[in-house]
Amino acid sequence: MERSGRTACAVSFVQRLQLHPRIFARFERAMNDYSTHKLDIAHLVSELETLFQFYPDFLTGYRIFLPPHLRATLPSPPPQSPKKKGPPIIVLKPFIEFMNKLQKRFANERGVIVQYLETLRKLKQETELLEKRRRRRLRWKMR
At 38, is the pLDDT very low, low, confident or very high (cuts 50, 70, 90)? Predict the structure, then answer.
Protein backbone atom coordinates (compact mmCIF):
# COMPACT_ATOMS: atom_id res chain seq x y z
CA MET A 1 0.00 0.00 0.00
CA GLU A 2 1.49 3.31 -1.01
CA ARG A 3 2.08 6.05 1.55
CA SER A 4 -0.89 8.29 0.62
CA GLY A 5 -3.22 5.28 0.45
CA ARG A 6 -1.98 4.12 3.84
CA THR A 7 -2.51 7.59 5.30
CA ALA A 8 -6.05 7.78 3.91
CA CYS A 9 -6.74 4.33 5.33
CA ALA A 10 -5.44 5.39 8.75
CA VAL A 11 -7.52 8.59 8.73
CA SER A 12 -10.64 6.63 7.77
CA PHE A 13 -9.97 4.09 10.54
CA VAL A 14 -9.56 6.81 13.18
CA GLN A 15 -12.69 8.63 11.98
CA ARG A 16 -14.73 5.43 12.31
CA LEU A 17 -13.29 4.88 15.79
CA GLN A 18 -14.25 8.42 16.82
CA LEU A 19 -17.89 7.50 16.29
CA HIS A 20 -17.48 5.21 19.32
CA PRO A 21 -16.17 7.52 22.07
CA ARG A 22 -15.44 4.86 24.71
CA ILE A 23 -13.57 2.62 22.30
CA PHE A 24 -11.72 5.59 20.83
CA ALA A 25 -10.67 6.80 24.31
CA ARG A 26 -9.24 3.36 25.16
CA PHE A 27 -7.53 3.15 21.75
CA GLU A 28 -6.02 6.59 22.23
CA ARG A 29 -4.81 5.68 25.73
CA ALA A 30 -3.19 2.45 24.47
CA MET A 31 -1.48 4.26 21.60
CA ASN A 32 -0.25 6.96 23.98
CA ASP A 33 1.11 4.31 26.36
CA TYR A 34 2.92 2.70 23.44
CA SER A 35 4.40 6.01 22.24
CA THR A 36 5.62 6.82 25.76
CA HIS A 37 7.09 3.30 26.08
CA LYS A 38 4.69 2.22 28.85
CA LEU A 39 3.62 -0.62 26.51
CA ASP A 40 5.77 -2.61 24.15
CA ILE A 41 4.39 -3.76 20.79
CA ALA A 42 3.28 -7.16 22.13
CA HIS A 43 1.27 -5.57 24.94
CA LEU A 44 -0.17 -2.98 22.57
CA VAL A 45 -1.35 -5.69 20.19
CA SER A 46 -2.84 -7.63 23.10
CA GLU A 47 -4.61 -4.52 24.37
CA LEU A 48 -6.07 -3.71 20.94
CA GLU A 49 -7.07 -7.31 20.26
CA THR A 50 -9.06 -7.26 23.50
CA LEU A 51 -10.52 -3.82 22.82
CA PHE A 52 -11.71 -4.74 19.32
CA GLN A 53 -12.72 -8.35 20.02
CA PHE A 54 -16.43 -7.67 19.40
CA TYR A 55 -15.81 -5.27 16.50
CA PRO A 56 -14.45 -7.31 13.57
CA ASP A 57 -14.23 -4.27 11.27
CA PHE A 58 -12.02 -2.44 13.79
CA LEU A 59 -9.98 -5.59 14.36
CA THR A 60 -9.33 -5.91 10.65
CA GLY A 61 -8.80 -2.16 10.29
CA TYR A 62 -6.05 -1.86 12.86
CA ARG A 63 -4.32 -5.07 11.77
CA ILE A 64 -3.63 -3.53 8.35
CA PHE A 65 -1.03 -1.32 10.04
CA LEU A 66 0.76 -4.13 11.88
CA PRO A 67 4.07 -5.40 10.57
CA PRO A 68 3.55 -8.61 8.56
CA HIS A 69 5.38 -10.80 11.10
CA LEU A 70 2.88 -9.76 13.81
CA ARG A 71 -0.16 -10.14 11.54
CA ALA A 72 0.82 -13.74 10.83
CA THR A 73 0.62 -14.68 14.53
CA LEU A 74 -2.94 -13.43 15.07
CA PRO A 75 -6.11 -15.46 14.55
CA SER A 76 -8.49 -14.36 11.81
CA PRO A 77 -11.24 -12.02 12.98
CA PRO A 78 -14.65 -13.67 13.25
CA PRO A 79 -16.76 -13.27 10.11
CA GLN A 80 -19.30 -10.46 10.24
CA SER A 81 -22.91 -11.36 9.80
CA PRO A 82 -24.92 -8.49 8.33
CA LYS A 83 -28.10 -9.75 10.02
CA LYS A 84 -26.61 -10.00 13.49
CA LYS A 85 -26.54 -6.75 15.41
CA GLY A 86 -25.52 -5.98 18.94
CA PRO A 87 -23.13 -7.69 21.31
CA PRO A 88 -22.73 -11.48 21.46
CA ILE A 89 -24.81 -13.43 23.98
CA ILE A 90 -21.83 -13.83 26.33
CA VAL A 91 -21.81 -10.06 26.83
CA LEU A 92 -25.56 -10.02 27.46
CA LYS A 93 -25.55 -12.90 29.94
CA PRO A 94 -25.14 -10.72 33.10
CA PHE A 95 -28.03 -8.52 31.96
CA ILE A 96 -30.25 -11.53 31.30
CA GLU A 97 -29.40 -12.95 34.73
CA PHE A 98 -30.21 -9.60 36.32
CA MET A 99 -33.58 -9.43 34.56
CA ASN A 100 -34.38 -12.96 35.75
CA LYS A 101 -33.59 -11.95 39.34
CA LEU A 102 -35.67 -8.81 38.94
CA GLN A 103 -38.62 -10.83 37.66
CA LYS A 104 -38.36 -13.24 40.60
CA ARG A 105 -38.07 -10.44 43.14
CA PHE A 106 -41.00 -8.45 41.75
CA ALA A 107 -43.14 -11.35 40.48
CA ASN A 108 -46.24 -9.93 42.15
CA GLU A 109 -45.46 -6.32 41.20
CA ARG A 110 -45.34 -6.30 37.39
CA GLY A 111 -45.49 -2.49 37.40
CA VAL A 112 -41.97 -2.30 38.84
CA ILE A 113 -40.53 -4.33 35.97
CA VAL A 114 -42.50 -2.37 33.37
CA GLN A 115 -41.27 0.88 34.91
CA TYR A 116 -37.69 -0.38 34.92
CA LEU A 117 -37.89 -1.43 31.27
CA GLU A 118 -39.48 1.88 30.31
CA THR A 119 -36.64 3.73 32.05
CA LEU A 120 -34.09 1.65 30.13
CA ARG A 121 -35.90 2.34 26.85
CA LYS A 122 -35.89 6.10 27.51
CA LEU A 123 -32.22 6.00 28.47
CA LYS A 124 -31.39 4.15 25.24
CA GLN A 125 -33.35 6.67 23.16
CA GLU A 126 -31.60 9.60 24.83
CA THR A 127 -28.21 7.96 24.36
CA GLU A 128 -28.92 7.32 20.67
CA LEU A 129 -30.08 10.92 20.23
CA LEU A 130 -26.92 12.26 21.87
CA GLU A 131 -24.77 9.96 19.72
CA LYS A 132 -26.55 11.11 16.57
CA ARG A 133 -25.95 14.76 17.51
CA ARG A 134 -22.30 14.05 18.27
CA ARG A 135 -21.85 12.38 14.87
CA ARG A 136 -23.42 15.38 13.14
CA ARG A 137 -21.05 17.74 14.96
CA LEU A 138 -18.10 15.53 14.05
CA ARG A 139 -19.10 15.50 10.37
CA TRP A 140 -19.62 19.26 10.48
CA LYS A 141 -16.11 19.76 11.91
CA MET A 142 -14.59 17.59 9.17
CA ARG A 143 -15.95 19.83 6.41
Answer: very high
